[in-house]
Amino acid sequence: MSTPKPTRRHWLLAGLHLAAWLPLANLARDVLVRGWPINPIQDWTFGTGLPALIFLVLTLAITPLLTLTGWSALTPLRRWLGLYAFFYALLHVSIFVVLDYGLDLALMWDTVLEKRYILAGLGAFVILLPLALTSTRGWQKRLGREWKVLHRGAYVAAGLAVLHFAWLVKADLTEPLLYGAAVAGLLVLRLPAVRRRLAGLRHSRAAGAGRPGPASDRA
Ligand code: HEM
After folding, report:
1. Residue-level pLDDT at 6
2. What pLDDT is recorded for position 205?
3. Does residue 148 belong to any structural domain of this protein?
4. pLDDT in tens, 67-106
5. Is residue 219 part of a domain?
6. Which terminus of the chain, N or C, has fewer Cβ atoms within 10 Å?
C-alpha cells in the first residue's frame, strides 16, 4: 500500500506547529540552562505576551497573502496561527492571574481600573476568547455570515494588544509602533478596493505566466 505524498499544505502546517512551540521551548531552555530566573513572573509574562502578539499579526496577514497569491495551502494556517495566538495569550494572562495575583480577583480588578495598559490587555483577551471558541468548522457553519463579522474582531484585539504594549513600555516606543504599523497596514489591505487590486495583480501575473488564475490555488 503506497503512503500519500506530503503536500505543500502538510509541510507548511508541520513548519508552523514546530515554530509555534519555540517560544515555550525557549523559556524552558532558559530555566534548564541558566537555572531558576530571578524574576520568573516578569520573564514569563514577556516570553508569552510577545508570541501572542506576533501570532495574532501573522493570523491577520494570511487573508491578504491568500488574495495576492491565491495559494489555498495557506488557509489552514490562519486558524492554527489564531489558536496559537490565543494559546500564548491564555498562558500570559494565567501567569498574571495565578502567579502574579494569586487569584485575588478584588486586587486584580483594582489593577485593571488603575492601569490602562492592563485594561487594554484584558479587552484584547476578552475579544480573543470567543474567536478561539468558535474557530471550528462547525461553528463557522452554524454562525454563517455572523462568523465573519465576529472574526473581524481579531483586528480590534490586535489593536488593543498593540495599545497594551505601547502603554506598558516606559521609554522606547519603537517596537509597539512597528506592530501597530503592521496591524494598520494589514487592515488597509482588507479594504475592498485594495483587495480587488491585489486580486487583479494575481490574475495579471498568472495570465503573464500563461497560467489560469484559479489553477494556481492548488494545495
Ligand atoms: C488580561 C489580559 C492581560 C494582562 C493582565 C496582561 C498583563 C501584562 C503584563 C503585566 C505585562 C508586563 C508589564 C511589565 O512588566 O512592564 C505584559 C506585557 C505584554 N503583553 Fe500583556 N496582558 C494581557 C493581555 C495581553 C494580550 C491579549 C496580548 C497579545 C495578544 C498581550 C501582549 C503583551 C506584550 C506584547 C507584552 C510586552 C512583552 C515584551 O515587552 O516583551 N497581553 N502584559
Report:
1. 86
2. 85
3. yes
4. 999 999 999 999 999 999 999 999 999 999 999 999 999 9
5. no
6. N
Best residue among 43, 92, 177 to mutate for probing ligand 1, ranked by most atoms within 8 Å of CB = 92
| Cβ 56 under 6 angstroms from ligand 1 | yes
SS (H, E, C) the chain: CCCCCCCHHHHHHHHHHHHHCHHHHHHHHHHHHHCCCCCHHHHHHHHHHHHHHHHHHHHHHHHHHHHHHCCHHHHHHHHHHHHHHHHHHHHHHHHHHHHHCCCCHHHHHHHHHHCHHHHHHHHHHHHHHHHHHCCCHHHHHHHCHHHHHHHCHHHHHHHHHHHHHHHHCCCCCHHHHHHHHHHHHHHHHCCHHHHHHHHHHHHHHHHHCCCCHHHHHCC
pLDDT at 217: 41
- Indicate whether 59 belongs to any domain: yes
92 lines ligand 1 (CB under 6 A): yes
pLDDT surpassing 70 at residue 21 = yes
